[in-house]
Each structure stands twice: as C-alpha cells, then as structure tokens.
Amino acid sequence: MSIGVKKIKIPLKKKELTLRNIEPYLEYVLSTFQKNQTKIRKMYDIYLGEHDVLMKQRPYSSDKINHQVVTPHLSAMVDFKCGYAVGNPKEFALNDGIENDEMKYLNRYWEDVDGRTVDVEITKWIYSAGLGYYFIQPKEIVEDIQNKSPFDLFLMPADTCTKVYSSYIGEEALFDVIFTEITKINAGKKETYIIMSIYLPTMYAEYKCGELTNKFELIKSEPRKFYRLLPLVEKYAKSDKVGLVENGLSVQNAIDDLMSSTLDNIDDVVNLIYVFYNVSLGSNAQEKLETFSSMKENGVVELLPSNPQFPADLKTLTSALNLNEIDVFTDRLIETLYNCNGVPLQTASVGSGNNAAAEAGAGWQNAYTIMLNEVNSMRKGDRDLLEHILFICKNTKDCPIRTLNSNDIEPKYNINRNENLLIKAQAWDYFREDVPPALRAKWVGITNEPDAAGKAIEEYKKQLAEQNQINTNSKTDIQE
C-alpha cells in the first residue's frame, strides 16, 4: 500500500477545460478517489477507536478468552495536535506596517461563520487522515452586510470530495469533485449509484455513474457566473498528505497486541490446565466434572489412584510471560510512537531534577519544532481560503471590504508555549537587563510571538517610567 493520499492528476491544462475534454478521465478520477477514500475512511475510523486488534483471534483454540484491548494513543495524539495548533484560535492579522480599517469586518465575518470551529474539525481530518477540505461559496442573499458574512463556510469530509490537478509543470488545480452515493428502492429493486458534482471554473455539472457500470451520464450542467474560483480549499500538514494515524499505525498495532496478549496470558495462568496421573475422578464425564468442580470449590484435592500399583499425582501446565520485560518493551514502543509524531509524552517525569526537566523540555521542544513545520504547510491552505473570502467580499454589493489583499494579512497560529513555565521564568532572569525583551522571549521560548511580546514589554516599561516621572514631579511640587 502506498503512503499518503494520492494526488489525482490528468494530462490537461486549465485553458483546455471543457466537459467534453474531461469526460474521458472521469473513470480514472472515480477509481483513484475510491482507493483514496478507502484509506481515508480507515484512518479516520482508527482515530475514532476502530483498531485492528478488534479482529484479533487466539491461535489453536477458538474457545479461549480473547482480550481485544484498544489503547487509544493515536486518538489522544490527534486531539493533542488539534489543541496545540488551534486550541487557541487561529487569527488573521495585518502585517507589520499595514493599517486598514476593513480588517475588523474580516474578523467579524470569520466569527459569523464560526470559523474557529470549522478549523478544529478540519485539523482533526488533517492529523487523522492526512488532509482536510473547506467548502466556501457566496450567499445568495445577505441581509446585514455590516455584521453578516457574504459567504458560507463548511467542512467537507475528506472521504467525500477531491481536487483534480494538471499533470503538467506546476500541477495547477483544474476542477473539484464532490461524490454522493445514493441508494433507491423502486418496486422492491435496489439501485445504488454515484453522483459526481463537478466544479469547473466556468461550469457546474453532475454525472451519474451506476454501481456496476463505468458509464457516466450527464444529468445537469449550467454555467458558473461571477464566482469562478474552485469552492474546495485543500489543507494539509505534510505535502505527501500522510496523517499522524498512518504514520504511527504499525506501532499502535504492536502496543494493542502486547496489551491484549498480556491479559490473555494472565487469564491463561489463572485458568491452569490440570493434569491428573493415575487418578479416578468418576466413572463418566459428568461425574468427573462434578468431582473436579467440588475439589476447586472446597480447596481440597483428594487423589484416588485408578491403579493401586502406581501412585496418583496432580500437575499443572502454564506458559507465563515475563511481565516486567513486556512492560519495558511496551513503554519503549509508546515513547517511539509519541516522539516520531511530535507529541510530548504526558506521563514523562517532570520532577525537579535536571535530567527530568531536560527530558520533559526536549519532548516539548520536539513537539514545537515539528508543529512549526506543519503550520508552514497549513498556511498554504489558509492563504488560499483568504483569496476566496476576499474575492467574494469584493464582488458583493455594499460589502465594506474593498481594498484588503491577501498579501497584507498573515494567518497566525497561537501555539501554546506555557509548558515548563517555571524553568523558562528562571531562564528569563538569567539574562542581563540590557538584553532586549524580544531576544529574551525568543531565546527562552516563552511565547510564539517574541517580537510582539518584546514590543509590549518595552511599551509597558515606557509607560511605567512616564508614570514614575509624573509621580516624582507631583511630590516635588507638594514639597515646594
């Protein structure tokens, strides 16, 4: 199986886009999407708790106790990543040196469409399945343009849609496709088919494809008017669209198997196999079972030899694991799983010793470094979304946003840097007073925006100095 979600590409250029030209490639688009869809659904279902261990069986015997333990590390890691990236909501802020009163309307519209909630849901898809999609389109009617957004913004589940790209240099996006599976029952006969809703820059079309046929029937087509941007905005944290779940799946499966097999072993030891040598428990199977059950219930074993010439004996058979070694190995797997995906291990020691503090700090520093790389990739989707928002605003009657450009705006992720705060505070005091606050903040790692924090500190010191001067002058006047 290939790694990541495959990019769907066809040998067409944007200037060649017509319904007639894309029809020969619809079968390839559908079949490739269905392969991607299978993987995406599996990864997301694993995030929800449907682990492979639930299919586990005991070898050699179907009636043994069969523990299927789901240890939801991947789910916890995806939730951590979401909280780390967008738990403090993402913001759109003007770049330094740029002032524009229209920014307040952009922020107002973002609140109106509940953009922060959409961000959280899309980020879950990104980290679980490898990618996520916004769907944005202009509203037909806007009643209060001063307070209500002129666009609708939704999450599109990644297993229901795709973008199709050109295979030529640059691989520009050609069109978007949304897949809808429909099942109908007519006169007791079941019919299942797929509707492919296709968005070209100048045209919208729907094709019907039967479950058992590769024929595509055009059932609807209409021109797209002023809004000729593709409505799907693709977002990912890695360019190969590998999610955290796929990246850590083999280690997660190993942890589940170890935990489940360990509990199986414990039950196997508790339910010992009793081996009777030359012992008469009864004349038939029922009598033997009753005699054996009575012995276990009363805690007394009475051995009656079936042949007096040989001694009676009782032994037990067990096959026990070394649980200490299993625990050590499991901890090693868990540590590998978290470190490789940039998630600090929450059970790591955070004591007062230097080694403990260093290990905890290293885990958080690794998480922050990886998150910065992922945010840089996600910003591409944010900028694409901004282009859509500003285009719709500028083409909506009476909308106050007219001069804002996407290059004037920076999507800012407010990554929480409050871990090991005591250690960072001690490091802050280590630097001399003549070290600029912005450099202190950067070196200590106490904030995600050291320049802004440095300016705020300098401004506060300036105000404090001015206030102290005023107080000093007031005291002098009173004395005089």
First-to-last CA distance: 88 Å
Lateral arrangement of strands in the main beta sheet = 1-5-6-7-8-9
> Which residue ranges are poorly predicted, with pLDDT under 50 across at least 5 consecutive positions?
349-353
Instruction: Spell the H/E element sequence.
Output: EHHHEHHEEEEEEEEHEHEHHEHHH
Q: Structural class of the helix and strand makeup?
A: alpha+beta
Strand content: 15-25%
Question: Using only CA atoms, what is the Rg?
Answer: 32 Å
Q: Which percent bin holds the helix content?
A: 40-55%
Mean pLDDT: 84
Shape: flat
Tell me what you see in this structure.
The structure is a single chain. This protein has 480 residues and is α+β, with helices and mostly antiparallel strands. It folds into 3 domains: 8-245 and 369-412, no CATH class; 247-340; 431-479. Helix content is 45%, strand content 18%. The chain has 12 helices and 13 strands. The chain has a 6-stranded mixed beta sheet with strand order 1-5-6-7-8-9, covered by helices on one side. A 3-stranded antiparallel beta sheet has the order 4-3-10. Strand 8 (203-210) and strand 9 form a beta hairpin. Helix 3 packs antiparallel against helix 6 (244-270), helix 6 packs antiparallel against helix 8 and helix 11 packs across helix 12. The radius of gyration is 32 Å and the shape is flat. The protein starts with 7 loop residues before the first strand and ends with a helix.
